[in-house]
Structures are given as C-alpha cells and as structure tokens.
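User: Second chain of the day. Same drill as before.
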Amino acid sequence: MVIPERRAAEVTPAVCKASAGAVEHLALARVRNVADFLADATRAGCWCYGASADDERAVGYDAPDYAGSGVVLVLGSEGSGLRPRVAKACDQLIVLPQRGRSSRSA
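Assistant: Same format as last time:
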C-alpha cells in the first residue's frame, strides 16, 4: 500500500483496529508524490487504474484485463476523489460498484 506523505491519514493504532488487523499484513510505503509514483509504476510495466465515481470516461471495474502485468489501484478521498494530476497519470479510470445505501451529511 502506498500512501502520500502529506494530506493523508497516518496508520495509527485506531486504523489498525478499524481494519481488524489487516493493515498488519500489508507492506506500507510513503511517497512524496502519488502522480510521480504512478509514472514510475507505469515505466516498471504496471497498469494504473484510478477509481472514479463521476468521470464519464470511467469504465466498469470488470472491463479491463488485469492479467499479465502488475496492477496499481488508486483510491482517492471519500469526498473529492482523485486529484486531477493523479487521475491523468492513470491508464484508465474505473467505477467500483457500491452496495447498499449511502447518505451524506450536510
């Protein structure tokens, strides 16, 4: 899991508890710039997919062929999603289905 150095939550004991300990089984790395990391991943042969709920260019998550190379899945913030430069650095934007209902507080 790659997390930006700035403007991102830290992995704290509360995060570990909320993840039911799953975070303890992940390799974590902090990067200075996510878009630059994605460029490096692309050069290394990975395909970068960004989750976007409101971009008309986004395809269903089951449309890409994920076989045969490394895959990077980029998730943005709950409220504003991916930053524009990060979205542009992705090879494809995808839509992840949401089950159940969600309500926003005003």
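DSSP finds three helices and six strands in the chain.

User: Great, on to the next one.
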